[in-house]
């Protein structure tokens, strides 16, 4: 039996557990699910599966020195809540309704490759679309690929080490090549807060940028709150305009704030 280690949010937002018993959504809405707040599927109704464990410890810094901690730092530790893939799928089936999109995020989902592959296979068999959100730090592609690889390589403002950034660069290229070879969709999401971030993207990811359409490169403003996002938003918009990339909001924060389970 394949076991996934889930974060404290687990599968969200739900109105029923795997046995059909009622639970309350963190969104405060009477319906299960939320909208995807980021990337090319922004606004699409989705259920989320958040996994535990991360191989990075990002601590973002704005140009004026303001620190914006990782908004899912609670997923960093090992452990988490174990749940069989079968029960994850049962919970999804109890809540999916007319939705067709499942987003698997973290933490870092690729730290659980075998159980992740089992989940992706089950979702595909049920005709559901899968997105895997990853920081790109992978030595090899997972055994099963999602319908959409959402890769978020980290720039220097994230505070991670140069060696980790190099690993993220290599992994992002590897995952993108694997996705394209299998006809899967891919997007690159970069968190930006200063004009020089565009230079870093073009320099460090030139090989990767040559493989994908500019509309698959998404720049998002730095910040885990509405006030911080507002400070970075115009920089991100200008970077998008100057490079033909896509500006990406964090719509879930606009709607619900930086709140777990939404």
Q: What would your notes on this structure say?
A:
The structure is a single chain. The chain has seven helices and twelve strands. The protein has 262 residues and is of the alpha/beta class. Strands 1, 2, 3, 6, 7, 8, 9, 10, 11 and 12 form a ten-stranded mixed beta sheet that branches. A two-stranded antiparallel sheet has the order 4-5. The mean pLDDT is 95.
Radius of gyration: 18 Å
Q: In this structure, how is the largest beta sheet organized?
A: 10 strands, mixed
For the record, give the distance between the C-alpha atoms at the N and C termini, rounded to a whole number. 29 Å
Task: Determine the structural class based on helices, strands and strand pairing.
Answer: alpha/beta
Low-confidence stretches: none
In CATH terms, the superfamily is Aldolase class I
Report the sheet-strand fraction.
15-25%
Task: Summarize the SSE layout with pairings.
Layout (H helix, E strand, L loop, with lengths): L2 E10 L21 E2 L9 E7 L7 E3 L5 E3 L11 E4 H11 L5 E5 L7 H13 L3 E6 L13 E4 L10 H20 L3 E8 L3 H9 L1 H4 L7 E5 L4 H18 L2 E2 L3 H6 L6
Parallel strand pairs: 3-7, 7-8, 8-9, 9-10, 10-11, 11-12
Antiparallel strand pairs: 1-3, 1-6, 2-3, 4-5
Give me a quick take on this structure.
With 262 residues, the chain is an alpha/beta fold. Helices cover 31% and strands 23% of the residues.
């Amino acid at each position: 039996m394949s076991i996934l280690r889930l974060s404290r949010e687990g599968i969200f937002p739900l109105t029923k557990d795997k046995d059909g018993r009622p639970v309350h959504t963190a969104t405060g809405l009477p319906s299960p699910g939320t909208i995807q707040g980021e990337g090319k599927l922004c606004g699409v109704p989705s259920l989320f599966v958040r996994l535990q464990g991360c191989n990075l410890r990002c601590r973002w810094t704005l140009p004026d020195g303001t620190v914006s901690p990782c908004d899912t730092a609670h997923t960093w530790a090992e452990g988490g809540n174990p749940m069989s893939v079968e029960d994850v799928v049962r919970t999804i089936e109890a809540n999916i309704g007319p939705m067709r999109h499942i987003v698997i995020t973290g933490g870092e989902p690729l730290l659980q490759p075998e159980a992740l592959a089992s989940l992706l296979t089950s979702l595909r068999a049920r005709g559901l679309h899968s997105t895997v959100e990853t920081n790109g730090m992978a030595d090899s592609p997972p055994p099963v690929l999602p319908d959409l690889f959402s890769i978020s390589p980290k720039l220097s403002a994230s505070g991670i080490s140069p060696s980790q950034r190099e690993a993220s660069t290599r992994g992002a290229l590897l995952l993108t090549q694997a996705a394209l070879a299998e006809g899967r969709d891919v997007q690159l999401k970069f968190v930006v807060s200063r004009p020089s971030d565009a230079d870093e993207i073009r320099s460090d990811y030139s090989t990767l940028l040559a493989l994908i359409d500019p509309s698959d490169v998404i720049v998002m403003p730095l910040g885990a709150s509405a006030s911080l996002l507002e400070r970075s938003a115009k920089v991100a918009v200008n970077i998008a305009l100057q490079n033909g990339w896509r500006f990406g909001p964090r719509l879930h924060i606009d709607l619900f704030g930086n709140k777990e389970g939404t």
